[in-house]
Write a structure and sequence with these properties.
The protein has two helices and no strands. It is mainly alpha-helical. The termini are far apart.
Length: about 45
């Protein structure tokens, strides 16, 4: 495997992992119970 192909493969893997993480966060924000829990935890800091 050439060095350029390896670099592109690694970059594609990182972009895929980032897209998967963003999709997971978006899926959590569609659940109202998660948002209530998140706000309660943030409010508890004050």
């Amino acid at each position: 495997m050439s060095r350029i192909a390896h670099h592109r493969l690694v970059r594609a893997a990182w972009l895929g992992a980032a897209a998967l993480a963003l999709a997971g966060v978006f899926a959590l924000y569609t659940r109202p119970a998660f948002l209530v829990t998140l706000v309660d935890q943030i409010w508890a800091c004050f």
